[in-house]
Amino acid sequence: MTSECYVYVTLPETTEPVVAARLKVSSDHQGNQVGQFVYGNSYLARPNCVPLDPGRLAVLDNKVKQYAGTSAIFPSLRDAAPDRWGRLIIEREFGGELNELEYLLYSPDDRAGALAFGLNSVPPAPLWQFNRTLQLPELLETSDALLKKEPVPDPIVAQQVQKLHLLGTSMGGARPKTVVEDEEGLWLAKFTRPDDAWDNPRVEHAMLELALSCGLSASRSKIVDVGGRPVLFVKRFDRERVDDGYLRHRMISAVTFLDASESSADRTRWSYPLLADELRRTDIDQANSRRELFRRVVFNALISNVDDHPRNHALIADAGGWRLAPAYDLVPTPMIAQDGRTLAMVVGDQGRVATRDNLLTECARFGYEWDEASSLIDEMRSIVENTWYNTCRSLGVIPADCEQIANAFVYPGFQWRDDIDADEAPVPVPNF
Ligand SMILES: Nc1ncnc2c1ncn2[C@@H]1O[C@H](COP(=O)(O)OP(=O)(O)O)[C@@H](O)[C@H]1O
Ligand SMILES: [Mg+2]
């Protein structure tokens, strides 16, 4: 069992990784897993060395840093590991479940952020070969087969395709995806799943566009047609193409930044106002980032994006320091309930409930005066209410799918207040 490795980082403004630290996983006398991390002296001697995260690994010294949590892997290093989808593929390739360190070691180098892991004191050369759009039909076919737990078609093709897939499995998340390069740079390519109830790629693309029109900083995206099936391409904000390769920005999830639990069973620190407070202390553009975060919460409430857990928010860092990353994974969730809807994280004084009133309770922590926040919410509400349908339709979402997701948008309870009788609330007028 592997229990030790080197941690490499691609430093800001460079394209080649260097050795930064060693990570060791061991058991204490009670049998708990403990992680030990130490920056290397050669790394500390570099004039341009940077901390790998703004939290547990923030201090650049040669003292051993210890971590014992649900796993022994420091949270910011865990952020570089694959989630459900990537693990499924790695397990298929390596035949069974691996330990946390092995998932890091066996996942390919296209992972989120600037880190890499290996057993050698010399870091591997940066990856040059990425999946190309041309290979997507094969990748889609294997993805379907893997999800249906069918044998992957033709064993020889299957082997090649697994290799291709391994060049794109380290990004997190549960949906099938890979990383693809085209003339514009690197993209996260998100596939349909056989059990999708509607056209997820086009709907997610439409939400990212709608977010932009509401003034959010959202990831750039486009739809690529692969043999008649849509694939959502989301431009990677942690990679920047330059003449001799890719610059890589360090990246941590809001799980790590908030020091929050991974699991929804413990939401103690799953909170937007708390995230705003933490941004105030760390983000190099904190005033703008906190306001951006507020618009994001309002938007999530208006489109019923209730999957807004802390792994769906991130921070990135270049040479200048850490800042809130653009929005991604924006997905509407239609629901029967018309009165209250809850987001995954605390919104305001009334907890997670996605209402106008609750959003306003803590607006000051995001840098908004009450009046300004109130007008902003009304403005965004009107944009979402009046344009979601046409945005979806103009980007190719069929009317039947629009109908299925319709009640995710500006649900009636968004405007209700505790003191208003539900019967008095305005009846929503369908938009189509
Ligand atoms: N535009 C992007 N640039 C860089 N990393 C991204 C981008 N979008 C998502 N990610 C990373 O990839 C992970 C998976 O993407 P996401 O859209 O959340 O997929 P899923 O729908 O499977 O949850 C995210 O948790 C985040 O770490
Ligand atoms: Mg996600």
TrEMBL record:
- Do the record's keywords include Ribonucleoprotein? no
One cellular component term from this protein's GO annotations in UniProt = cytosol
Tell me which Gene3D superfamilies the record gives.
1.10.1070.20
The source's superkingdom equals Bacteria
Domain HipA-like C-terminal residue range list:
169-388
Q: Does the keyword Transferase apply?
A: yes
Provide the GO MF annotations for this entry: protein serine/threonine kinase activity
Q: Name one Pfam family in it.
A: HipA_C
Q: Which InterPro entries match?
A: HipA-like_C (IPR012893), HipA_Ser/Thr_kinase (IPR052028)
Which UniProt keyword terms apply here?
Kinase, Transferase
Q: Which family does it belong to?
A: Belongs to the HipA Ser/Thr kinase family.
Entry protein name = Phosphatidylinositol kinase
